[in-house]
Amino acid sequence: METTAVRTRLVEVVVPVYNEQRALRASITRLQTYLSGTFPYGFRITIADNASTDDTWQIATELAEELPHVRAVHLDEKGRGRALRRVWSISEADVVSYMDVDLSTDLDAFLPLVAPLLSGHSDLAIGTRLARSSRVERGPKREFISRSYNLLLRSVMGAGFSDAQCGFKAVRTEIAQALLPGVEDEQWFFDTELLLLAERHGLRIHEVPVDWVDDPDSRVDILRTALDDLRGLARVARKTLSGAARIPMPARVQQAELPKGMARQLPRFAIVGVFSTLAYLALFSMLRQAISPQAANAIALLVTAVANTAANRRFTFGVKGPDGVVRHQFEGLIAFLVGLTLTSGSLALLPDGVSHGAELVAVIIANASATLVRFMLLRVWVFNPKRRTSLTSKRRTSR
Q: What are the backbone angles phi and psi of residue 354, rounded to the nearest 5°?
């Protein structure tokens, strides 16, 4: 009987090193033992020596000979980014990753880091030391610099990720190899530039809270690294503004698009929503002069919900004729109840005696949340074309 071999998913872990003869053997042995005993996928550890001048390269080659799934690569020039580019660009693994040689990050976070990439849910993954659930031990100086840098990224560059500098990251290999030509830095800013470029192209970045203990023997020149990072940010900002940051993406990313019909439905739903909201606010304000805010909200929301369902039925989802109109309105009331719950709850949380303007702000914010729920209910349930076809077929059969 002929059998077909099942290919194991492969994750490559790169450990960049420069003059790490003191810590290298213990760290790689610990990492290899941990992955061999707990990691459910295939793995390969690549020691990337950045032109070390001590015995690091000799130790790396010895480890590659002694330990399974360990190999060593030598570079003639320094630079963490250069090392990652060298290994990632030619890797045949499903996911490429890296971690610092000091293993400051708890290794139990590694599987949660790479699992969303192997499943296809996300494109990149980073460990974050800035989440509330992270447990971090480091000095106040490093803490201040790290938080200030990431605050700068969010405020100036609009970054959505929380921790650009944590030495614990992973990328789907096809994504890494598509992004690398657009990353110029070869040193410590490599991580940040890669993440900014990924975010600019709409790629998904997964974050994992980590436990992290600072290495007191770290050889990073904090001041020089900070200045290099600032120069890197200025360069990336110029490229972004000039449009030079765009690079070709894999077909899977290029072909990603909204579900069928949604590109047409969203703007129409938004137009209906704007008119519905204006009508709701006008009716709420008028009724509020005579009755309580809760009663005014319920009546205004019910009236505009009926009109909203009718408008979306015809204009957004293209349903014509009287067939099913009563059922559509009845099911649309489910969305009305969601909006009623949110708006009533927001009004109930307001202190007594607040101004009418404050009431309007509260119901506007609550309505904005309810709008998203309403659109999804109308699209996937009330006006779902497959459901309409099924109901029509059943009625014909019953006749």
A: -70, 160
Count of beta carbons in the 10 Å neighbourhood of residue 256: 11
* Residue 106 annotated among the catalytic residues of the structure: no
The DSSP annotation for 64-102 comes to HHHSTTEEEEEESS--HHHHHHHHHTT--SSEEEEE-TT
Which secondary-structure segment (H or E) carries 299? helix 293-311
pTM for the structure as a whole: 0.60
Summarize the confidence of residues 222-234 as an average pLDDT. Answer: 68
Q: Which of 49, 100, 191, 229 is catalytic?
A: 191
Distance (Å, whole) CA 279 – CA 286: 11
Instruction: DSSP for 315-372, please give it.
Output: IIS---SSTTHHHHHHHHHHHHHHHHHHHHHHHHHSPTT--HHHHHHHHHHHHHHHHH
- Phi, psi at residue 234, to the nearest 5°? -60, -40
Residue 44 has which token pair? 């390969």
CA 307 to CA 301: how far, in whole Å? 10
Cα separation of 164 and 130, whole Å?
A: 10
pLDDT in tens, 60-103: 999 999 999 999 999 999 999 999 999 999 999 999 999 999 99
Cα–Cα distance measured from residue 14 to residue 47, given in angstroms and rounded to the nearest whole number:
6
Distance separating alpha carbons of residues 203 and 52, to the nearest angstrom = 35
Residue type, 240: T
